[in-house]
Design goal:
2 domains; alpha/beta; Lysozyme-like; disordered N terminus; disordered C terminus; six-stranded mixed β-sheet; single chain; 14 helices; two-stranded antiparallel ribbon
């Protein structure tokens, strides 16, 4: 009977004691170091389903936050802490347990702290944003949480809170573009079907996109408009592939420039005009799709563009891991689902970024010639 009692004691301890095994995440999570918070600073188990991810700032150093979570008198913890300088992730509370990070929202949320301490010159960094975004994407995939701003929120956005973090230096647009790029929800439609584009013009999406649509076709349309100078590139990168007011406004401006009715809707006539506008102002980037192990002048050209934008430092003409990593990073920065392969959306995003880098003027002259051509061929309705 002694061994039965011993097993019962071990099982009982396992139910209440934190351990790396209980906190171990699925294999698709980014690397995480497990350091348990004080048992006084969280509740074992959950009383509600996990539906929300809460973003926090430490207002202190990594070390001070770690010590605070392990201090039994603090009565404070978070599930994760993301370091500033390199994006390292430390886990303090298992996701199945309730951390003390957001008061009334504790039962149904996961809290992610981000090291930030302006008093000691510790800002948010690109490494921290990227690491945190990968963690959020993994958590969202695990629990089926939508990767939008209704479910990924700041501590200061919760009802009844008296906290102000994350503050104004937290770049929500950039952060959500990274989340959008790695989101499993974006991966599903990409895996199911190819882009729907105008016949023989793969850089222009098919007509019929509607307000409130969210798709890669919308993202391609947005990058086409960004390349032509009708919408801000950073707005596209952080827009989540959503056909919202900014896209509608940009379309209306484009339509007006082409002497079309400025409806802001993406119809057949507008798609035809977009084809003509892009033909009149060809992008100085490779036009063919490229992937791992390709070797060609197009690969060398792609590498040159990535080098000019600061994403890689060598041009070899061979599409290996170095090029794939550079493309992946560019895609993450641009709100594109990160595959590491070079396809049409990445092409138009690169073209738009290059146009901005070389400080070329908006393509007014090209569009003027295109508009004249449209009228000459009787395409316009009036």
């Amino acid at each position: 009977m002694r061994w039965v009692a011993a097993i019962a004691m071990v099982l009982a301890f396992a139910l209440v004691a934190p351990s790396p095994a209980l906190a171990a995440p699925p294999p698709y999570y980014p690397p995480v170091e497990y350091v348990p918070a004080s048992r006084a600073n969280y509740d074992v188990g959950r009383t509600a389903a996990i539906t929300t991810i809460v973003i926090h700032e430490t207002d202190g150093t990594w070390l001070s936050a770690t010590n605070w979570f392990q201090n039994r008198n603090s009565r404070v913890s978070a599930h994760y802490l993301v370091r500033a300088w390199d994006g390292g992730i430390m886990q303090f509370v298992a996701e199945g347990d309730t951390a003390y990070h957001a008061r009334a929202a504790n039962p149904w949320s996961i809290g992610i702290e981000h090291e930030y301490d302006p008093r000691h010159a510790i800002p948010h960094t690109i490494a921290q944003y990227r690491s945190s975004a990968l963690l959020v994407c993994a958590i969202a995939r695990r629990y089926g949480i939508p990767t939008d701003r209704a479910h990924i929120v700041g501590h200061n956005e919760l009802r009844g809170t008296d906290h102000s973090d994350p503050g104004p230096t937290w770049n929500w647009n950039y952060y959500m573009s990274l989340v959008n790029a790695c989101s499993w929800q974006r991966a599903q439609p990409v895996a199911r079907a190819a882009l729907r584009t105008v016949a023989n013009h793969g850089y222009v999406p098919s007509a019929g996109l509607e307000f409130d649509d969210i798709s890669d076709e919308v993202l391609l349309l947005q990058w086409d408009l960004a390349y032509l100078g009708f919408v801000d590139r950073d707005e596209v990168a952080g827009g989540g592939s959503h056909f919202g007011p900014l896209t509608e406004e940009a379309l209306a401006k484009f339509q007006q420039s082409m002497v079309l009715p400025p409806t802001g809707s993406y119809d057949e006539l507008t798609a035809s005009a977009l084809v003509q506008a892009l033909l009149a102002a060809p992008a100085d980037v490779p036009v063919t799709d490229l992937e791992m192990e390709a070797e060609s002048d197009d690969v060398a050209r792609l590498q040159t563009v990535l080098q000019e934008l600061g994403y890689m430092d060598r041009v070899t003409g061979y599409y290996g891991e170095m090029t794939s990593d550079a493309v992946t990073t560019f895609q993450q920065d641009s709100g594109i689902y990160a595959t590491g392969t070079y396809e049409v959306i990445t092409r138009m995003a690169l073209a738009a970024r290059m146009r901005a880098t070389v400080a070329r003027e908006p393509v007014v002259e090209e569009l003027e010639m295109t508009r004249v051509g449209f009228i000459a061929f009787g395409v316009l309705p009036y």
